[in-house]
Amino acid sequence: MTENLRRHPRFSVDVQANVRTSDGRKLPARTRDLSRSGICLITTNSLAQRDELLIDLILLFGSSSASEPLPLRARVVWCTPISQAFQVGAMFENLSKAEESFLGMFLRYLDGSILPAGAEVESVDDSSESEPGQVEPSPESKDDPFRR
Fold first, then answer.
1. Shortest CA distance to 58 belongs to which of 47, 72, 75?
2. What per-residue confidence (pLDDT) applies to 87?
3. Average pLDDT over residues 41-70
4. Is residue 131 part of a domain?
5. 69 is in which domain, residue-wise?
6. 34 found inside a domain
């Protein structure tokens, strides 16, 4: 068994992400996983290594409530074709203290240590059903060479 050498724990999470590239393209994406230092995205567009990104994450709290977009600056580390899409690994960089704080809060939500305001423990739905109108492709692609 190989040892996990990552600095921060990764959370498998499927949320909407709107990506803006350094050349001005706006791309819809879905997250595959997230950590304090980086993100894995699924998108229909290939992204160049070292490309600078602005990623807005949007967390849905059920069918009637969503978070404000969480903007995160990142740099593409790798991009791999997967099914009819691309899997992109990006490392966060130059995050402000506020962005780091919001990312930390989001990660605490993912690990279950905090809930959204007004939510009760039994009302949190951890099912993987997709909401209507969600952006494809799905991060459940089966030919992922990085999943074990």
1. 72
2. 97
3. 86
4. no
5. 1-83
6. yes
> What is the count of structural domains for the chain?
1
For 119, counting Cβ atoms within 10 Å of its Cβ (0-12 exposed, 13-18 middle, 19+ buried), the class is middle
pLDDT, residue 92, reads 95
In a domain, 75, yes or no: yes
Tell me whether residue 48 is in a domain.
yes
What was the pLDDT predicted at 108? 86
Written as one letter, the residue type at 44 is T
Beta pairing partners, 107: none
Distance CA 90, CA 29 (A): 13
Phi, psi (degrees; rounded to nearest 5) at 145: -70, -10
Q: Which two tokens stand for residue 110?
A: 């993912």
pLDDT in tens, 92-101: 999 999 989 9
Q: Which residues contact 53 (CB under 8 A, 6 or more apart)?
A: 19, 20, 21, 22, 47, 73, 74, 75, 76, 90
Distance CA 121, CA 114 (A): 10
Confidence of residue 129 (pLDDT cuts 50, 70, 90): very low
> CATH no. for residue 15?
2.40.10.220
What pLDDT is stored for residue 135 in this prediction?
47
